[in-house]
Each structure stands twice: as C-alpha cells, then as structure tokens.
From TrEMBL:
Keywords: Amino-acid biosynthesis, Asparagine biosynthesis, ATP-binding, Glutamine amidotransferase, Nucleotide-binding. Residues 2-214 form the Glutamine amidotransferase type-2 domain. Its EC number is 6.3.5.4. Belongs to the asparagine synthetase family. Pathway: Amino-acid biosynthesis; L-asparagine biosynthesis; L-asparagine from L-aspartate (L-Gln route): step 1/1. This is asparagine synthase (glutamine-hydrolyzing). It catalyses: L-aspartate + L-glutamine + ATP + H2O = L-asparagine + L-glutamate + AMP + diphosphate + H(+). Pfam families: Asn_synthase (PF00733), GATase_7 (PF13537). It comes from Streptosporangium amethystogenes subsp. fukuiense.
Length: 595
C-alpha cells in the first residue's frame, strides 16, 4: 500500500515533474519507506512506498521494465501475485524482484487491460507505455484503493488522495452543487465520479481507463455481479445450510489471502461479529500470537464509549496478543483536527477519529491489519434493509429514501443558500436510476447493490483507507473479497436479513464464536463526544461555521446554522447523526484544504 501520482500532457509540452513531486510529497504518510519520480516526455509518475512485499530496493517504484517498455506505479496488494508470477514464468517472463508490482507490470504486458480479470486484491495503478505514449489507469472491483483525477484540455493529473492533487495546483476548487446535494442528502456520500470540488473526479471502481496521447479516453468496466438467483454458483444449493457452508468457505479463503505479506499482519478487533470472525478464522488457520487492537473513549451524553467487554472476550477465547487502547478526551480534539486534514473528502462518520487514533497506535506494532469493514453492506446488516424486503421494485426508491436519506429535497431548500441549491432532486434521481437498473431480482437486492457499489465505496471503505494510511498502516478487508461479494449477491436476501441482519453470516459463525458475540446488539465505533457535541468540540464547529471563510463561502442558510448552534444535540438526521456535525465537518474540511 502506497501513494501514487502522475501527469500526462496533451499539449505537446513535457510533463511538469515539479508538480508531480509536490503531489508525491503530500502523500509521505501513505508511503514513509521510500519515494521515486520518473518522467518521459509528456508523462511523469511519482510514488511513495510502504514496504509490505519485497522489502528490498528491487521493489521500488516507479518500476520500469525496459525490455517491455513499461513503467508503473501501484497502490495496494495483489494477493494472488505468487500464483500469477508462476503462471507468467511459465510463459517465459523473467523477474528481477519478488514484488507484486513487477507481477502487475508483466501481467499488463501479457494481457493488456484484461490483466485486471486475473487480479485478486485491492489496487489502483498507472502504467505508461514507452512506445505508444499511452497511459492506463485501473482501480479494483470494490474501490478499496482510491484514485483521484483532475483534467483539462492540456493535461490529466491523478493521485491517491485529493489533497495531493491540490498540491499540484491548477485545480478548480469551486463547490460542485450536485455533489453538495448528495453530501447533504445521501448520508454524506458523494458517488463517483464526482467529489465536492468541481475540478476533482474519481476513477470509478472496477474500471480500467485508457488515455491516449491526444487525450482520448476509453473506459472498460470489468466487473459487476448480478444480484439475482440465476447467478447461483454451482457448489451452493438452495438450502440455508449449504449457503452457510459456502459463505464460510469463501470467507476462509478471503482471510487466508490477506495474510500474504513479508511483515506481520494484525487485526482491528472491535468485538463485533465481523472482526471477531476474522480472528476466529485466523486461529483456525493456526495463527499463534496474533496481534489484535481495540479502542475506547470516554462516555458522553449517557452513551458508553467502548466495547472492551466484547473484544476482551474474543481475545481471551483465541489467545491473541491483545492491545486495549483507551482514549481520554484530551487526545480527542487534536486527533479530530488531524483526522479532518487526512480526509481525501469530507467524511461525517464519527468513527473516523476512532480509526485515526486506533491506526496511530496500531502502526507502532504492525504495518498490516485485517478489518471487518463491508460485512454490513454485503450481508444486509443495517436497519434500513428489512423495510425493503416486502416492497416492489417500483416503490424501492421511496422506501430507501425514507429509511436512509438525511432529508428531503424540499427540506434541503431551507438549509442551503439558493446559489448552491440544484433545481432538481439530483440525489433522488440518482437513487431511482440505480435501483431501477436491471440485474436485481427484488427491491432489497437492488438496495444491496446500490450500497455495495456506491455507499460502501465512498463511506466506510474510503474512511478506513484514509485513516489507516495517515500512519502508513495497510488495512485489508476480507469481506470485500470479490468472490465473496459475488456469492453474497447471489444469496437469497431473506437469508441475509434473518436474525436481525447478517443471518447467513451469523449462522456461519456458530461453532466458531461465543454466542455472546454472535447474538449481541449491533455496535459501532462509539465516539460520544462527537455524537453529543459540547465544550471545545462545539466551539470548534461554531468557529468553522461562523468565521470569515464560511461567511464568504455562504454554503448554508445562516438562520438555520444559528438554530443548530443554539441546540447542538437536538437536530438529527434520519439515521440519528448529528446535523450540526454534518455542516461543521464540511466547513472544517474545506478550510483544512485551504479552499
């Protein structure tokens, strides 16, 4: 896992290597173990390295294979790189390193853009072809690894983070009104390709983009599982027990794949079903002395701030080397400000700061961790899924919006300033189009597809990447193994929403985990001081929303802001998030980015 950057020019001028160097330097936290720059005419590539596989300098990037005429930068991990290397060696390729980056280069030479069909892992990459001047960008199936873009008539720039693009300068930092509508409506999610800034876009997941020297762009979307029963895999029959065994088998493979590393691998253990199941399967694999990590905060607003009782239970059950990380409020405010600066996009979820502080501590012990993110979207663990179970496809969008949207289009008109308010309900239109698309049998199937392809990518997955990589920590997510996601997509939705959600996963866990873990109430990373804003946190938000920068920008109706500030804990979104924090976080992020 690393940070990549680059530029390709279309105007006949050489690439701006200095701009690429600035972009690369901003990402030093993502890659503290090394850096590199490469340029050839109109193309330049930059890289910051975190050494996980092949710790020698032979694995350094940008990586050039002069015989093949290819130079690449890569962020992520190809979990099946050893198998691919063996296959490529059988086809006559010779290797100078033991890195997965070199496997990517050879695979690209062998299969072209179809190389992604052979990859099992998380990745974003750029490959420059010496002889054609062509540049190819690619992103993994579930968007675990980010890739941000800024393009005009003269050039295209790209980087692993949005702040890196800003460091290159020349980016239109105006507010994208459609993205702002999504942020305020779609639970702070801004779907690809947009970001909150007009001049920055995202390469969609499961996409390979070919950029010709004249600026012509061609996209290939290479993966989208059908959410239909016709997609049932041969080995999984219709009975619940067969589904349970199939899910457990695929998850075993996913967890095993993510142990590939030349450094130790730990686990972020919340004490919930998902992370606990990862620990159980690693113990089943014979992993002794596994390092596990849990975090907790001070209580606030009558809400408990830790789940140590559950994580301790799992750690004791499997004999892990467990690290409890209690955080008092004196550490929380500075960490919050640093976490906001580390965000590639504004992310409202209060567990961002939890992941940030957890990552800071974990990075002192290991460089790689497995994490349970993605299970709720893939296996239907959220509260808004059961109401969709009996709804027709025609009524799916109305039900989904009622359960998930923070507010209606009409209500938003009283919150945003008129110049930032789109005339149409662009968020509602987006969801209606997505839910109505073919390839899903039921309304619940369509909602799970929407959340897996959109919400998952641009909320929890992005959150984990940004907060862990702020400390050079690589997070791997077995529940986002694409073969497991394919299986889950084909699984009948009633098996997923059973037992209060994630029913088939809970059944798979029985016999592996204590019942107290499987049948416990659903938990989150609790950060009460942000859910219940008071004291210095309230003053931070107040300053952000009433200062000169916010007043000049004028995003929000000032009387509405004043109302929230007067009663900071009374106003909640549909899912119970703090409405004041949603506004304040956006302004805090914009000001942190200097826009």
């Amino acid at each position: 896992m690393c940070g990549l950057s680059g530029e390709i020019r279309f105007d006949g001028r050489p690439a701006d290597v200095a701009a690429v160097a600035r972009m690369s330097e901003v990402m030093s936290d993502r890659g503290p173990d090394g850096s590199g720059l490469w340029s050839l005419g109109p193309v330049a590539l930059g890289h910051r390295r975190l050494k996980i596989i092949d710790l020698s300098d032979r694995g350094a990037q940008p990586m050039t294979d002069s015989d093949l005429g290819l130079t690449a930068v890569f962020n992520g991990c190809l979990y099946n790189y050893r198998e691919l290397r063996e296959e490529l060696e059988g086809r006559g390729y010779r290797f100078f390193s033991t890195s997965d980056t070199e496997v990517l280069v050879k695979a690209f030479h062998r299969w072209g853009i179809d190389c992604v069909d052979h990859f099992k892992g998380m990745f974003a990459f750029a490959v420059a072809e010496r002889d054609t001047g062509r540049l190819t960008l690619g992103r993994d199936r579930l968007g675990v690894k980010p890739l941000y873009l800024s393009q005009d008539a003269d050039r295209l720039r790209f980087a692993s983070t949005l702040p890196a693009l800003l460091a290159g300068t020349g980016v239109d930092t105006g507010i994208d009104r459609v993205a702002l509508h999504h942020y305020m409506t779609f639970h702070s999610v801004v779907p690809v390709e947009r970001t909150i800034l007009t001049g920055v876009r995202k390469l969609p997941p499961a996409t390979v983009r070919t950029v010709e020297p004249d600026g012509t762009v061609t996209d290939r979307r290479y993966w989208q599982p059908p959410y239909t029963r016709s997609a049932l895999p041969d080995h999984a029959g219709p009975s619940p027990s067969e589904w349970r065994e199939a899910v457990l088998d695929r998850l075993r493979v996913a967890v095993r794949r993510r142990m590939v590393a030349d450094v130790p691998v730990g686990v972020l253990l919340s004490g919930g079903l998902d992370s606990s199941l990862i620990v159980a399967l690693l113990a089943e694999e014979g992993q002794a002395g596994l390092s596990t990590f849990s975090i907790g905060f001070s209580a606030a607003g009558g809400e408990r701030g830790d789940e140590f009782a559950y994580s301790d239970l799992v750690a004791d059950e499997f004999g892990t080397d467990h690290h409890r990380i209690p955080v008092d409020d004196t550490r929380l405010l500075p960490a919050l400000e640093h976490a906001v600066r580390a965000m590639s996009e504004p992310m409202v979820s209060h567990d961002c700061v939890a992941f940030h502080l957890l990552s800071q501590e974990v990075s002192r012990h290991v460089k790689v961790v497995q994490s349970g993110q993605g299970a709720d979207e893939v296996f239907a663990g959220y509260s808004w899924y059961p109401p969709l179970a009996g709804v027709s496809r025609e009524d799916a969008a109305v039900t989904y919006a009622g359960e998930f949207f923070d507010r209606s289009h009409g209500t938003l008109a009283g919150i945003l300033s008129p110049e930032y308010m789109p005339e149409r309900d662009v968020s509602g239109e987006f969801v209606r189009r997505h839910l109505a698309a073919p390839g899903a049998d039921t309304a619940l199937d369509a909602a799970l597809r929407l959340d897996t392809e959109v919400m998952l990518v641009d909320d929890p997955v992005k959150r984990v990447d940004n907060m862990t990589m702020a400390f050079g920590l690589e997070a791997r997510t077995p529940f986002l193994d694409h073969e497991l996601v394919e299986l889950a997509a084909a699984c009948p939705p009633d098996l997923k929403i059973a037992s209060g959600g994630k029913g088939v996963l809970k059944d798979a866990a029985r016999g592996l985990l204590p019942a107290e873990i499987i049948d416990r109430p659903k938990g989150y990373f609790p950060v009460p001081a942000i859910r219940h804003i008071h004291g210095p946190f309230l003053e931070l938000v107040r300053d952000a929303l009433t200062g000169q920068a916010a007043r000049s920008r004028g995003l929000f109706d000032q009387p509405y802001v004043d109302k929230l500030l007067a009663a900071p804990d009374e106003h909640r979104t549909t899912l119970g998030a703090n409405a004041l924090w949603q506004l304040g976080l956006l302004e805090l992020w914009l000001q942190a980015q200097g826009v």
